[in-house]
């Protein structure tokens, strides 16, 4: 299902939970709503579901306005963190629930539930009660229950929040595969950026009720539109007072108070002088700390008044705290008023 949201707004008392949000989602896409706690992600999801009434704005499914439709008439499946399985029902009956509500025939229900059980790979567990399943298995059943009535849109609110880290990773990949196999438009809420980046076709960064940016994870990482997005997604050096950045002296100098410069750690080359690719453009710095980060060394280096995080490949010798090094900045983003500029 294709989704469009226009000027969607919702206040709770004086809190603007969702503030003039606009977006479009293409059929079949998996979208991650990402942002800090209290940003408005759940409220957006609940309005799409029909569980919360917008103060203003329009929600369109396939071009048709659905604002007035109750949840059960919107063709939506839910997997909510707190939308637990029915405890006293078997796996089979849980998955059959929506079909029973739709008054499908017994044989239709049986066929569909079996299809779903096969899809989630839990054959043989049909008669188990939820407490006889692992957390991961329970979430698979919740997923099957949501999909059984063939919804056009799947909404997932922190679906893996209650699950431990390792299983959570497996479930993510699993969910990604299931959703592309079924081909259903899906939106999930998370505040885990790794989860959003790994799973979603596109992410939407929500902050203080506003949609800051929408795009593929790579686009949003590579070309953040605001300092907030830059700081929220991935590691970054955000400088307030970029008075003098070696190699970029001719870059436009931002004047406004709100101006920021973003330099990603991987855009900073740091090393002993003989290692640096273009020494004449480099600045001098002092290493303050070095940390092993699994795939790189993370070096904290002091350059003038700035402290910068830089990445250094593991093949290179480790640097030592206190050591003088050369620092070369390969690219940066300039946020100036409402504009963002990428410089190399
Ligand atoms: P989290 O990641 O913590 O779930 P979120 O991004 O989903 O946060 P929302 O739950 O949508 O954010 O909340 C947005 C704002 O609206 C918050 O300030 C929250 O306190 C407020 N809010 C949400 N629901 C209600 C409600 N029913 N009554 C009053 N205020 C609410």
Structure description:
Its EC number is 7.6.2.9. There is one protein chain. The chain has 8 helices and 19 strands. By secondary structure, the chain is of the alpha+beta class. It has 2 domains: 3-229, P-loop containing nucleotide triphosphate hydrolases (Rossmann fold), CATH 3.40.50; 239-343, OB fold (Dihydrolipoamide Acetyltransferase, E2P) (Beta Barrel), CATH 2.40.50.140. Helix 2 crosses helix 3 (106-120). The longest helix is centred in the middle third of the chain and has 18 residues, at 165-182. The two termini are 40 Å apart. Residues 12, 15, 17, 35, 37-43, 191 line the site of adenosine-5'-triphosphate (ATP). Adenosine-5'-triphosphate is lined by residues 12, 15, 17, 35, 37-43, 191.
Uncertain spans, ≥5 residues at pLDDT below 50?
none
- The level of helicity is 10-25%
β-sheet strand percentage: 25-35%
Q: Structural class of the helices, strands and pairings?
A: alpha+beta
Q: Could you tell me the radius of gyration in angstroms?
A: 24 Å
Q: How would you characterize the largest beta sheet?
A: 6 strands, mixed
User: What is the CATH T-level topology of the largest domain?
Assistant: Rossmann fold
Strand order of the largest sheet: 6-7-8-3-9-10
Under CATH, the homologous superfamily of the largest domain reads P-loop containing nucleotide triphosphate hydrolases
Shape: elongated
EC number: 7.6.2.9
Pfam family, one: TOBE_2
Subunit structure: The complex is composed of two ATP-binding proteins (OpuCA), two transmembrane proteins (OpuCB and OpuCD) and a solute-binding protein (OpuCC).
Keywords: ATP-binding, Nucleotide-binding, Sulfate transport, Translocase, Transport
